[in-house]
Specification:
By secondary structure, this protein is an alpha/beta fold. It has seven helices and ten strands.
Length: 226
């Protein structure tokens, strides 16, 4: 029987931050595997290391030591340009604060990742329109973020995360700035994305939100809780 390799494999990931002569140990030997199609929630108290782990998983930072295998490639030693290219192709991000550019319309915000990926103008506009329509925002294409509700802004952010058809969606406290109704709607969208085959990695400190995932990983003091 053929062995199916994990999509992501972290082995003995250590992350230290140095300031002058002080070394702060944030991650202390994290090893975990994430399979294709998983829906993982990473949770822990403030200072547990979950944001640092998210940054490493999202190719926004590199470990001090240890290996990060993504699709059978060790990306631990990639330089910034290599990480940026891989991140743009493989990972879509959903942030608590939406991270929309205030001077751009909803359509223009969604289009951004595809510009860096080199998608042709006509193709990227059509795809952005299609995604925004999927999230019931077809009448908001030309609205700027301050003309949208929090829930609508997060839908724009989700559409943006899907522009390059990434396999992995990394959601950082995605319901943090939403009311209860909008938060539930967002979680329903994330679950549907997972049902459609996307691998979801969600960072949250809220246990009821984490409970929506298929698997919960708990961090404490830079280590996985057993």
């Amino acid at each position: 029987m053929k062995t199916i390799n994990p999509l992501i494999k972290l082995t003995s990931i250590i992350k230290d931050y140095k300031s002058a002569d002080i070394v702060t140990k944030v991650l202390k030997g994290i090893s975990l595997e994430i399979k294709r199609g998983d829906f993982i929630a990473i949770t822990g108290r403030s200072g547990s290391g979950k944001s640092t782990l998210m940054n490493i998983l999202g190719l926004l930072d590199t470990p001090t030591s240890g290996s990060y295998i993504l699709e059978e490639i060790d990306v631990s030693k990639f330089n910034e340009d290599e990480l940026s290219d891989l991140r743009n192709r493989k990972i879509g991000f959903i942030f608590q604060s939406f991270n929309l550019l205030p001077k751009l319309t909803a359509l223009e915000n969604v289009v951004l990742p595809s510009i860096y990926a080199g998608m042709k103008t006509k193709e990227r506009i059509e795809r952005a329109r299609e995604l925004l329509t999927k999230f019931d925002l077809e009448n908001r294409l030309n609205n700027r973020p301050n003309q949208l509700s929090g829930g609508q802004q997060q839908k724009v952010a989700i559409a943006r995360s899907l522009m390059n058809s990434p396999e992995i969606i990394l959601a950082d406290e995605p319901t943090g700035n939403l009311d209860t109704k909008s938060g539930k709607e967002l979680l329903d969208i994330i679950k549907q994305l997972n049902n459609d085959g996307k691998t979801i990695i969600m960072i949250t400190h809220e246990l009821d939100i984490a409970a929506q995932a298929k698997k919960i990983i708990k961090l404490a003091d830079g280590m996985l809780e057993k």
